[in-house]
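Lecture 7, part B: from sequences to assemblies.

Below are the input chains for today's worked example.
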Amino acid sequence: MTIQAPEGMELIYSRPESLVDMHTHYCPGCTHGIAHRILGEALDELGMRERTILVAPVGCSVFAYNYFNTDACEASHGRAPAMATGVKRTRPDNIVVTYQGDGDLAAIGTAEIIHAAARGEQITTIFINNAIYGMTGGQMAPTTLPGQKTRSSPDGRDVEIAGFPIRMSEVLATLSGAAYIVRRSLHDVKNIRKAKKAIITALRVQEAGLGFSMVELLSSCPTNWGIQPDDALEWIEEHMVPYYPLGDYKVIEAVANL
Amino acid sequence: MAKQMLKGNIAIAEAALRAGLEAYFGYPITPQTELLEHLSKRMIDEGRVFLQAESEVAAINMVYGAASTGARAMTSSSSPGISLMQEGMSYIAGSELPVVIVDVMRGGPGLGNILPAQGDYFQVTRSAGHGDFHPIVLAPASVQEAVDFTVLAFDLAEKYRHMVIIAADGQIGQMMEPAELPEMKPVNKVRPDWALTGANGRGKRIITSIYLSGEEMETYNQKIQNRLAEIKQNEQRWTELYTDDCVLLVIGYGTAGRIARSAVDAAREKGLKVGLLRPQTLYPFPDDRISELADYTEGCLVVEMNAGQMVDDVRLAVGGQIPVSFYGRMGGIVPLPDEIVDAIEDTYEKLAIHTPK
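Predicted structure of the full complex, as structure tokens:
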């Protein structure tokens, strides 16, 4: 739905066409809304909305398909890259985007994301890393930090028992099929702008057929972290960024020519 | 087209391609691997989609994605691989997508063996995934039937927007016999009005299996049940032999049904009034005809390559009207005609004692 400016006023900021005008189910302070917004803006700016097929995950963003004004499907837990492969191989001219959380992508769906990247599948993955399982109420994720308290690591993640968190961008960057793998953060305006820029690049990588692209977004979960939204943003910067350094992990040469 | 010598797995693969298969995703597993190998060349040569997935889990979800775009999509596997696919099969059932799945069944449980078996009857007809649904299940008993059912599978899948499983035992997949392939059909590029193609000049479309409220979920469950009722009414398929005067009705499907036919012929030569019914659809089960035959038959003998699974459906179909006995071999052992003749004679004898008419 197009937002109209009141008479006599110029419209300088509005909802992207790629997002549906509706309330989301996300908790206050959750950064899914920001991630949706910048992905929506990116699709608008690249004129891709009408060509896009979104593959939604299982997790808090399970209903992402309701919020994006694009064709969409809902994968089973972790299988979004496989489903997206089926979509893209039969619709090579469409833009195919998976939107996945850390449990989805880095635990149950590890095989699917690794092989999609290894094949150089022409899809773009938006990877929301908030170091916790949100939808099921705050259990330990594969990306939960050492010592981080969750509902299933109540004394803090003990690496002797639960092992270490996985840095997925670093893992995927080792694969030849991956063309563009970067990690950004949503904890402040400057980083949000960088994240949006990365999403635009990732989508252009797909359009140019350069290979698999992924933007990992460090995100907050104030509800399950049990802290205030603004404290949660600080927590990303203080605790997540040191373990998950921001940066470009794989950018093939051809990306520079886009 | 003229008949040619074809191996079952390759016949199914080639028939699928000729039926307009647009996208195939699979993973090697014995005894179905030739199917994947055949398509790995033919699909690419024809400019269609072939991909060897990293697992059966991935393969079925690739099929899920391809079917979401309205493409004719298929995968194939064997028993342990089908177990891995059940998650995706449930989602496909929850999303009303037409897909075709070939199960070349082997011995189990567990890793079992690679011999032909029918131990997955319950799995394909009763529990193809979590939730309340049944796929349509076709059971070929020859290479020709495997070819014909492959073509039929796509037509039924699209007619009902429903999953179709071709349940072939390893024998059907591995044996060679003459069969005629269908004419080559191009891929149908026309997309149905629910397919994901990009919301270009139209509203967005969503393929999902989530219905959060109980009422919504029940409405969808009812929709599946209504469709299954329609399928039950229209699609029961079977063949029968000597049923006009039989005292004992032998029932078997796939390879067991085929061997039972030889046994029934041999028993007839011995003067026993034996008939044969071979279900071609395991779901919907041909229970209308079996119930009808129970009215003028004295008993049934069910033959399977398992511990007795379809026999439950026969019991339900005859509703206690006549006694139902069972003869089965397990472990991937295929029963010989003589064993079945013995079982026929045993059952025949018992019937004479228990049923005075």
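Note for the exam: Chain A has a mean pLDDT of 97. Keep this in mind when comparing with the next example.
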